[in-house]
Amino acid sequence: MPNRDVALSQVVSGTAAVATPGALVLGALVLWGGLEPVAALLGFGPLVAALALLTRHQLAILQAVRGYGEDLVGGSAEPPAAARRYGIARDLVAALTKLHRWGRDQIDELRALVETRESVLDSVPDPLLTLDQNGRIVRANLSARLLLGKLLDGRDLSSVLRNPVILDAVAAVLAGGSARVVDLSLSDPVERDFSVGVQPLPMRAPDGTTALLAMHDVTSLRRAEQMRADFVANASHELRTPLASLVGFIETLRGPARDDEDARDRFLGIMQEQATRMGRLVADLLSLSRIELNEHLPPTQAVALDTILATLAATFELQAARRKVRLQVDCPASLPRVVADEDELAQLFQNLIDNALKYGRPGSVVRIAATRPARLPAGFPRAPHGAVAVAVADEGDGIEREHLPRLTERFYRVDPARSKQAGGTGLGLAIVKHIVSRHRGALTIESEVGRGSTFTVFLPAAAAARPGARVAEAGG
Ligand code: ADP
User: Fold this and answer.
1) What is the arrangement of strands in the sheet containing 128-132, beginning at the earlier edge strand?
2) Is the pLDDT of residue 472 over 50?
3) How many angstroms separate the alpha carbon of residue 425 from the centre of ligand 1?
4) Predicted TM-score (pTM) of this structure
5) Shortest CA distance to 365 belongs to which of 340, 396, 391?
6) Is 428 touching ligand 1 by the criterion CB < 6 Å?
7) Percentage of the chain exceeding pLDDT 90
8) What are phi and psi of 220, to 5 degrees?
9) Full set of structural domains in the chain with CATH
10) Ligand 1 within 6 A of 388 CB?
């Protein structure tokens, strides 16, 4: 705390300043003989003493006001007692108080502004870094900290992003160049692609910020582009094979086998099979694109599962009988209805049951069971009336674990020859996935090699439950 007592030197110099004109007048009078030196001294002594007391008093008031000002800078302060007694001190104290309040309001406003700016920056999903003239990170938003590490402020950018293209772009901008955009791929912890913009800021901020580096995640965009290209290539390939075989048979029938009746019958049979396969493929492709088109619009109907499952069981009766598979449907009518699109739901279960029959062992059982699940998978969104689960379980060869995450990819097949021989298009589970996604549901796949597979679909339940119970069974 600074010394607020009035120093003797201040009193002396203050008194000297105010007493000097009087001293000069008295000195002149003594010199001209108008005043006795003793009388002059006797008069001047008390005058100087009175002036010294007055000066000290005034200086004490000023010191008190100065102390008040210093205390205000430090936080809060009590106005000095002098401010109550002397008008000038009161005015000075009032002016200081006003100035202090104004300053505090300005600081509060600035602080709020900075906090808002920080939270706005933190809520931006793209990682953002501000850089100073030397390429050091001044500030990193939340997204940048999550991507590049917690302690970024003050670090050299080159120690955080060791990518020569980025560093060159930053160096060029810091050297006065214009904004630029470059591509960046990061592989740790997962592969991600970014489009990185580096731009100079119009004014250098007090914290030294000179440039902004913004990283826009384009991974899903690139992946979607790649998937689209792969999909077109795969679909063309799938269509080209039966088409080539059709063209080949037509040429044979018009040429060497023109008069061979046996060959003609055989070839026409194969041609029909290939044409049917193409038809199935085109139908699945159309379904997929139609479902994808509506995927953002969840269905709103309340659909009873027991009716759909019973109808499907009847439809598959013949196919099941051919493979000597028993199809068992268990759907208690006490279950609530589900929020669904009836046609899409029928297609979903049709694909799952078709697979269970295709890949299940002949003579085994395919069980379709609808229940109120005790637990929901992690991906299932919150539904106001809970969920209904429908499991389609077969007793087939099962699927090895490494294939499970990829089964719902378009044209992904564990055993392509077996799928094609069974008439599969490789799109059935992709359609299932998109229907489930449109229904805001979830799909789980469990499988044990040698024992079989269970595909379970979780769907949001509709509001009201229906009375009565029903168990349908079909096949033989
Ligand atoms: P596909 O038309 O080939 O059956 P899907 O999309 O329906 O196409 O299924 C993709 C792949 O998943 C199939 O080729 C098959 O290898 C595997 N698969 C699907 N369902 C089953 C199942 N119930 N049991 C064993 N494998 C299955």
Assistant:
1) 137-140, 128-132, 209-217, 192-200, 180-186
2) no
3) 9
4) 0.64
5) 396
6) yes
7) 67
8) -70, -35
9) 8-109 (no CATH), 124-217 (3.30.450.20), 225-297 (1.10.287.130), 298-475 (3.30.565.10)
10) no
